[in-house]
Design brief:
- It is a single chain.
- The chain is mostly helical.
- The protein has a single domain, classed as 3-Layer(aba) Sandwich (Glutaredoxin), CATH 3.40.30.10.
- The protein contains nine helices and four strands.
- A four-stranded mixed beta sheet has the order 2-1-3-4, with helices on both faces.
- Helix 4 runs antiparallel to helix 5.
């Protein structure tokens, strides 16, 4: 199943907090027009601009992923990147004490509840090693299924409480996009997949992405879950008035 159907590939009533307001626009590997960064032959750039950068190890990326498609006013490619290689600072670093970390987790869980998402369940370790899941997402991106794999992967982690450093949970997420487990497993060690993730992370740094989640609009980078709203306003201001 390709994500050419966008989020409609998942029945609305299966979305957390389902309902018509959860239906988004196409968001899977659909870049912008040539005037905003597409190729000269008119083929959209699968890395934008704009582009949504994320890493499964970051719970704020989960919050952003659940709403980015319906919040941004233009179709936006999803780009998995290795947040451990971004310059930061990262939300999960530098807690002064256990109370600070507990408050951070509570804020994430409260936001998820306010948005009607499934009750948040934490993996044993946060941040976990997301390398396998990121590679699987890059393999899916080449097939036009990055959203169809990434949303189930996020839900495995933060609604199921499963560590995505485990192959089994990555394969469960991939199965939601009807991807064959053997093909996914083979992709995890393929040089082109590993190189694609590395190169995308390098490009993200060059574009000014410091941490995730982030939305790059071509001239600015908006960081954090709140950055999705800021990016949406900036992109909407560029749209021609009717």
């Amino acid at each position: 199943m390709s994500d050419d159907a966008g989020t409609d590939a998942l029945p609305v009533d299966h979305w957390p907090g389902g309902g018509a307001d959860r239906v988004g626009r196409v968001g899977d590997d659909h870049g912008s027009a040539t005037t905003n960064g597409g190729d000269a032959d008119g083929v959209p750039d699968p890395e934008g601009p704009p582009a949504f950068y994320f890493d499964f190890r970051d719970p704020a990326s989960y919050l952003a992923a659940e709403r980015v498609i319906q919040t941004l006013p233009v179709a936006t490619p999803w780009v998995p990147v290795d947040a451990s290689r971004l310059p930061g600072p990262h939300a999960w670093e530098g807690f002064r004490c256990e109370h600070d970390e507990a408050a951070w987790r509570e804020a994430i869980a409260r936001t998820a509840a306010e948005r009607g998402l499934q009750p948040l369940r934490w993996p044993i370790e946060v941040p976990f090693d997301s390398t396998l899941a990121l590679r699987a997402a890059w393999y899916a991106k080449g097939l036009g299924r990055v959203v169809s794999v990434s949303l189930p992967a996020f839900r495995q982690a933060y609604a199921g409480g499963h560590d995505l450093s485990t192959e089994a949970y990555v394969l469960i997420a991939a199965s939601a996009a009807e991807m064959h487990p053997r093909a996914v497993l083979q992709s995890l060690e393929r040089g082109p997949i590993v190189d694609a993730l590395t190169a995308a992370t390098d490009r993200a740094v060059e574009r000014g992405v410091r941490t995730v989640p982030a939305v790059w609009t071509g001239d600015r980078v908006f960081h954090g879950d709140a950055g999705v709203d800021e990016a949406a306003a900036a992109l909407a201001a560029r749209q021609p008035s009717s």
